[in-house]
Design goal:
The protein is an alpha/beta fold. The protein is built from eight helices and six strands. The two termini are about 25 Å apart.
Amino acid sequence: MPLDLTDLPALADAYAAKSPQDILATALQEFSPQVGIAFSGAEDVVLIDMAVKLGVPFTVFSLDTGRLHPETYQFIEKVRTHYGIPIETILPQPEAVQKLVREKGLFSFYQDGHTECCNIRKVEPLTRALAPLRAWVTGQRKDQSPGTRANIPVVQLDRTFGSAERPLVKFNPLSRWTSKQVWDYIEIYDVPFNALHSRGFISIGCEPCTRATLPGQHERAGRWWWEEATKKECGLHLGENIPGG
């Protein structure tokens, strides 16, 4: 029976107690081949490991901002070869990057915030990546950012990148998992991980905007550390994770 998408909040409530594997299986079975797993080059690799074990056809895409750590590029390649899967890398529009760099230099975000750069290097490329899809899968978790991700449901209608004419469903299978549960999975199943994690990087983004965190600091403290905590989103999910959103 096809998934009933007319009441996604109710569906989210019904699926809230299900395992990430069950939620991921539903996403792939209902929407394949028009569903993509978004891979950031960090601990969301567990979604790829789960998908491989499910044996349902799936695709993976990654946003190559041009500013990632060398270790992240190496890790993306390691995941590709380890699992024997293609990973589509989505690049920003070169003209937009060139205009930004020409007018403001390479590090304008330290002065005027990261929004403009993230829109060019992440949001616009993601818009293109999602255009042919009916659903996508993210590695978002509630405990990643209590200020902006506390209300993440396991499945929702994506009002940022979808529309009434082209509804887009977003699955967040790891929503209710903690960081410890993710890392327990990585250790138990010997899942490869980004080398930066062993050097104190918990949340990993672009190289100029990510740094290692100190013991006791929240994982998002290493992202855009010069800005207010309430702004620590790049625009890919901001606005989606609010009650009723």
